[in-house]
Amino acid sequence: MSSPCYTRPTAASAAREKGKTRASLDTATSPNSENYALVNFNSPFQPLDPSKPCLLSTLPPELRLEIFRYLMPEVHVDISLPPSGKPLRNRLLCPRLLHICRMLRHEVSYLFYGDTYFTGYVSCLTFRGVHEFESDLFALHKANLTRNRHLRIDIRLPVKDPIPEAGEDELWVQVWKKCRRFGNIYDRQGKKHQAHFVWFCGLAEWFLTRKAGVTPRWTYAFTIGYWRIGVYDVEEDLVDFLRDVLSCLMCKCVREAKLNKKEWGLVKSGGLEMLSDLVEDHKFLNTVYRPSRQQEEFDGLVSSLRKFLQS
């Protein structure tokens, strides 16, 4: 007779003993039928000693989840990458319930990664913090995160001009490295076209990691700097972001980017999601505060970009 599942070593402890790499550990915990059964709470919850049953194990999984929900801390987790660059696994606030046993960890992670508010703050279209947060999760936790409707990416406006000044060689090297996956920035003539290409590379790099039904759906929100507090300042920054940054997806200077047809489809799909959230933010601004002064220009840009992204 085999021992109960919660008495066996976890994948993490087994990895430490056998010296497995992170890649092999992810493979071992890929979301197969067994893992999805655990997510759906169809796996038995059995005590170590059958003569001394655990009362918690006699409850239906729905009631256990309600109990765990009362014990969960109500937190908003900031997943932004700090200036120190420390690994996210050391900064992420995890409930203590995740460290009791395997079975509880599976059930509590269903609540924690499925209901917690996660927010990533993005500056200069650098989504590295959000991407590393997702990459650091185990496959089962990623599966739980896909059902979370409280995931938010806060894009700070205005987006800084990405083109360095002449003579700033180190910054030019960083820009070139950021863009080389999609092409050579020096093939674009003029500072304006180079800026469009850099912004395109930042967006495309993020959109290519998005896969419907596989990766979580993040809601995009747009905030401005504390020094720009006027209502029309907010609207101006939204329109500028739409005109200068998001609309770069349809600029001629990016048409020759190194993307195949499938990759272009992912970029366009991601662009549609961001455009949809931008329109909602603009609509909310007009409803709560006052009518837009740039509504005609905004509607024209939205129509042109949506037509391109849906083509």
UniProtKB/TrEMBL annotation:
Residues 1-29 are annotated as: Disordered. It comes from the Eukaryota. InterPro entries: AN11006-like (IPR038883). PANTHER family: F-BOX DOMAIN-CONTAINING PROTEIN. This is F-box domain-containing protein. It comes from Aaosphaeria arxii CBS 175.79.
